[in-house]
Amino acid sequence: MNSPVARGESTAQLVSRLRAKDTRGRALLASVLLSAIVAIVGAVSLTTSTALAKGHATQATDTTNISVYMTEYKFRLSKSTMPVGTVVFTIYNKGQIVHNMVFQGPKVFANSGPVQAHKKTILRVKFKKPGTYAFVCTYHFELGMAGQLRIK
Ligand SMILES: [Cu+2]
Question: Which residues of 66-99 are buried (b: 16+ CB within 10 A; e: fewer)?
Fold first, then answer.
């Protein structure tokens, strides 16, 4: 389903990969949704097993909070570089139309789901390795609605 890129992927690479897939229309959407489900299930089990293994460790130590502001047609992040660990994105749609925030591999799959105008949602994503992680709005990546996150 996804090309085996070693680590990191520029926004341009992700967009061109999505563009190639977009010719399959609904297949892309289905794949994004399935990926999101896999990622959520994986993230939940990982968080649980890590907590059990560490025992004394508090979950707060490796969690970063980031605010994301979506408009037509761009993302603005309160922070775009952070350490390995869990990122809790609070995603605000400050635009006039629906947007989303999707990490579509090669290493991380996460999907905010559609966020309607003037609404917000929370997306938790676990970044296990340093690298550059590209994300897009799947409705508007063709219009340049994309960005990237650096994990150190
Ligand atoms: Cu959008």
Answer: bebbbbebbbebeeeebeebbbebebbbebeeeb
CATH topology of domain 11-151: Immunoglobulin-like (2.60.40)
Q: Give pLDDT tens digits for 40-55.
A: 444 444 443 444 444 4
Stretches where the chain sits below pLDDT 70 are 1-8, 21-61
- Any idea what DSSP says for residue 141? G
Q: What is the pLDDT of residue 105?
A: 82
Ligand 1 centre distance from Cα of residue 9 (Å)? 20
Q: How far is the CA of 117 from the centre of ligand 1 (A)?
A: 10
Radius of gyration for the alpha carbons in the chain, expressed in angstroms and rounded: 15
| Domain extents in the chain | 11-151
Q: In the prediction, which pLDDT does 57 show?
A: 45
Give the distance (Å) from ligand 1 centre to CA of residue 14.
16
